[in-house]
Amino acid sequence: MNSPLAAPLSTTKSISLPSHGPLRVGIGGPVGSGKTALTERLCKLMRQVYDVAAITNDIYTKEDAEFLTRAGALVPERIMGVETGGCPHTAIREDASINLAAVAEMHRKFPAMELIFVESGGDNLAATFSPELADITLYVIDVSAGDKIPRKGGPGITRSDLLVINKIDLAPLVGASLEVMDRDARKMRGERPFIFTNLKANKGVHEIARFIAQAGGLVPRELPETF
């Protein structure tokens, strides 16, 4: 099966990085889908050729930020945890001020920063990022939730810049059909790209990183094979 990755040129965003500041990449998706795993792997890969930082959102803790720190995704001072104190989608959509302030603080600390990941707290399929907060949005779902997930729709599935369908290795164990998910993702997303991944084995990480660099207008740099 061939998951489309190259976004049509007509939909590629044009971001003026020098005046805009760092490229802001929002990573959303339901609890347990693999958002933090994706953030970790992208940080470890892209930090080798770009100046990177990360912000995570949790309701009452900084658990995801602590996980990224323990995993060595970035040095601790480049990881910031935000406690939203309420519904996770509010802090990334309706009132993104707490996250915008965190991005601004990181940029002050690291003025050469080129790229910052903003991981949302786990939420339902209706959660989306404010365009003021995220220049590019990645939405992560996983095969273990069932092959019906893509056709359920929701803004994350239909309007994210890249849909990531994770944990493909579990498909045989949960009776999910990747062919059905491929068909439904194409139907729901039209020309918007999606990719099947197994983040546990780093399958798909390089492709996602290249998509971010291209769609976000980053200076093209060769990514290392291993990270």
From TrEMBL:
One of its GO terms (biological process) is urea catabolic process. The keyword Zinc-finger does not apply. GTP binds at G29, P30, V31, G32, S33, G34, K35, T36. It is found in: Cytoplasm. Its main location: cytoplasm. Pfam families: cobW. Residues 25-195 form the CobW/HypB/UreG nucleotide-binding domain. The keyword GTP-binding applies. GO terms for molecular function: GTP binding; GTPase activity; nickel cation binding. GO terms for cellular component: cytoplasm. Keywords: Chaperone, Cytoplasm, GTP-binding, Nickel insertion, Nucleotide-binding. HAMAP family: UreG. Belongs to the SIMIBI class G3E GTPase family. UreG subfamily. Homodimer. UreD, UreF and UreG form a complex that acts as a GTP-hydrolysis-dependent molecular chaperone, activating the urease apoprotein by helping to assemble the nickel containing metallocenter of UreC. The UreE protein probably delivers the nickel. Facilitates the functional incorporation of the urease nickel metallocenter. This process requires GTP hydrolysis, probably effectuated by UreG. This is Urease accessory protein UreG. It comes from Hydrocarboniphaga effusa AP103.
